[in-house]
Design goal:
alpha+beta, 17% strand, 125 residues, 3-stranded antiparallel sheet, 3 strands, 32% helix, single chain, Alpha-Beta Plaits
């Protein structure tokens, strides 16, 4: 189920230590499928969609694009649940095995969408 419209929630996971994407994809699926957020919510894995992409890293300069895993959810609630599960995983694991998320803003959702799609929220912008 892919939804690229307004309520699409995307976060990218940088592939660390030159691991190949299929390995990382199955690792992320395992973490999301078995984890719970702070309220005891779990992920319905049938509702999320994953794709391998190449993009420039957010931090530092890199001449070439790096592989990322883009995870798309149909709504913000599932997105927040996934981010909370990954945050809990990161707090329980050592530094080199943590998952780095690129779009983990849990603030007001319309601000995030406006920022990512360059939509002005005021008349003077």
């Amino acid at each position: 189920m892919r939804n690229d419209e307004s309520l699409t929630s995307i976060f990218k996971d940088e592939i660390a230590n030159h691991r190949d994407i299929p390995f990382m994809s199955s690792k992320i699926k395992g973490i999301l499928a078995t984890g719970e957020d702070g309220s005891g919510n779990t992920m319905n894995m049938n509702l999320i969609w994953m794709e391998c992409i190449k993009a420039y890293p957010i931090r530092d300069y890199h001449a070439e694009k790096k592989p990322y895993l883009r995870i798309t959810t149909p709504n913000k609630d599932l997105r927040f649940t996934a981010l909370d599960i990954i945050s809990r995983y990161n707090s329980e694991t050592d530094q080199e095995n943590r998952i780095e998320t690129a779009s983990d803003d849990t603030g007001t959702y319309y601000s995030k969408v406006a920022r990512e799609y360059k939509i002005p929220l005021s008349g003077w912008a």
